[in-house]
Design brief:
Number of helices of chain A: 10
Largest sheet of chain A: 11 strands, mixed
Distance between the termini of chain A: 32 Å
Largest interface: A-B, 31 and 31 residues
Structural class of chain A: alpha/beta
Oligomer: homodimer
CATH superfamily of chain A: Ribokinase
Helix content of chain A: 25-40%
Protein name (chains A, B): 1-phosphofructokinase family hexose kinase
Keywords (chains A, B): ATP-binding, Kinase, Nucleotide-binding, Transferase
Number of strands of chain A: 16
Strand content of chain A: 25-35%
Family (chains A, B): Belongs to the carbohydrate kinase PfkB family.
Amino acid sequence: MILTVTLNTALDITHRVRALRPHATHRVTEVLQRPGGKGLNVARVLAALGHPVTVTGFVGGGTGRAVQDGLARTPGIVDALVPVQGATRRTIAVVDATGDTTQLNEPGPLVTPAEWSAFQEAYEVLLRSASAVALCGSLPPGVPVGAYAGLIRTARTLAVPVLLDTSGEPLRRGVAARPDVVKPNAEELAELTGSHEPSRATRDARRRGAQAVVASLGPDGLLAHTPEGRWRATPPRRFRGNPTGAGDAVVAGLLSGLVEHLPWPDRLTRATALSAATVLAPTAGEFDQRAYDELRTQVAVTGEVSAA
Amino acid sequence: MILTVTLNTALDITHRVRALRPHATHRVTEVLQRPGGKGLNVARVLAALGHPVTVTGFVGGGTGRAVQDGLARTPGIVDALVPVQGATRRTIAVVDATGDTTQLNEPGPLVTPAEWSAFQEAYEVLLRSASAVALCGSLPPGVPVGAYAGLIRTARTLAVPVLLDTSGEPLRRGVAARPDVVKPNAEELAELTGSHEPSRATRDARRRGAQAVVASLGPDGLLAHTPEGRWRATPPRRFRGNPTGAGDAVVAGLLSGLVEHLPWPDRLTRATALSAATVLAPTAGEFDQRAYDELRTQVAVTGEVSAA
């Protein structure tokens, strides 16, 4: 199975309103809620692609129960979340009639040292039956900022390929622990390297320790620097839609391609097509299967294989 | 015990943010949550006054469990909520650094005819040990608009004094069933009677069936027309603060005074002081005990006893 780690899981709530006016009272016309946090989103896409997937991370409180109820209703996902005393955070997306979104993100639960230890033990056990692992998203309060670096070292010791998708200091420390793949977006990459020039920044991120770097450049597709070569994957056109979850779809595409031993250009094609099919889907964070099937034949990958 | 009915219970969530900007992403700096819906707020005040109180109404889903967990932590309140398949609604109050509030109210759960029947049976059983009952707030989808009228008739049959605090068509139909007390605010009273002149509107509401009408006029206090006489209760000054729950504090003051057989002027004094002490409390919906003790001696009640 593929393992995804979401230390800061969330209950993602969507509220539809006519228009959001500060200091007014609003009737919410529609409420949607589902398990959230990057690793859970990645798992949902992997499950839809037919890959057995196990999710771990922290979960707690009534919101945590709602997350676990949602996972139980999603075929193909095994729930191996670790309980904490604090409550899983909520995120609230208030969507108005124009489709614009106002986002409210609660802080995550305070994780105790004992809970962090319990997680690390559970993680190591899960890794023993994992073909690959993705470490995704922000860290809740109480988890040390070097957490991902430690989890990467554990995965490398057990020879499980590891992908890191986070930002800021956890990304900086994680990269130094030599993950197999990092997948920053343009902003995260610039923050890590100080360079806003994607090709230079991607090269620099490899020098900092990442074995392969796949930068997601929004509607411009992906830029990959890997030990096997460098490629650029471009969707057939720019798509308008909701970019929520597009980055998570890229991670799912890369991971599924990795465990299927696809060549890099095929992994990038899959990841780019999944990302565009997510932007096109009517529900945020889902992907449109028909659009995916069509786009897979239309992504352009250009680049060169390394001489080494 | 005093019974309060909240057919549309809520999980009240407060989110503190620096400033709410439509279409931006916000870090919530503080999250508070507690059981909500008017009848539960009334019960909290009654319990704080030392009155044994039982709450009923509908509760369901993960949000419903959070409501019940909150009630279990509130001393003096007995939980007799009736389970439904749908989920209890959330209300979200986004409070910015200036203290201004933006409110998002989810719709209530769809109540089935079988669930409504189960509630009516439970209500009748609870009434048999109740000294008074308050029917509070809006109706969730699926509950007939004449619901309160039916619940009032049941209470009258069992000789349990009944107070109604709702709005719109449920208020109009409820008043016609001759409740002992209705407590509209100025807006609800104007909607019921078509008159914006409080004294005329209060008289008119009695003609429509209510035996006593207590209109809450915000910072101007209360206006009461009862079979025993007419009074006006005025706080010593206008208070600045958060009016959330001030109306529920009035209901708690009136009900507690009723079961203690206090004369009307004393009930109105208590209700006015509780309401002002709620506006003054730092936490929305709580009342400030010291302010209440002080204000009780400062409320002015003027009026006349009926000749009858």
